[in-house]
Fold this protein.
Amino acid sequence: MLKFENVNIIKSLKAIMYTNTKHFQSDFDIDIKILTKAVKKQNPESKIYLWMSRPEGTWCLKEKDTFIKGTREYNTFCYYAENTQDKILVYVVEIAGMEKRRVMGNIYELDYQKFYRHVKEVSVERGDVKLIYENGERIQTAEERITEADDPDFGKFLYFEDQPKDSDALCSVLQEEKCVRNHFKCGDINAYIKKLSV
């Protein structure tokens, strides 16, 4: 597998998408928003995504949540391996920052079927859900329905985060993932995209 370091993330992924995604290319507009917002996030975990190009659209999934069983990200990532024969291109995307109004970072090539089996094998159990509001947060069980309603004590609802049952176990998985991909062979993103287009 190859890694492409210090590349223009949006430009590179868009070019990859055009080689494989024939329908619902507008999905990529959502990906652009997600990846651009990630630049401002403080937590390094919040800057790493799994990006998928399918013939019928794209997905941009938080890496952390993809390794927690039962989350939207985990279910989405596994769905296509279990239910279609479509050609799926998958990459880890690490956001480094902004440079001349371009989202910059690293892209790592993955083998979807192989990585799907790996995700199934090493993912951790899902725990509670953290609800984040303007002025605080609440914890609720994963079984409870998330209403996204404003809270009388903490104000406006902002977002929720799935929590692992064992945060140390998830931390170990994510560290191992980073270690493995750091050993990928360096590639030239333009040559790679050109080869995909053939």
The longest helix spans residues 167-182. The chain has two domains: 2-125+165-197, 127-164. The CA atoms of residues 96 and 105 lie 5 Å apart.
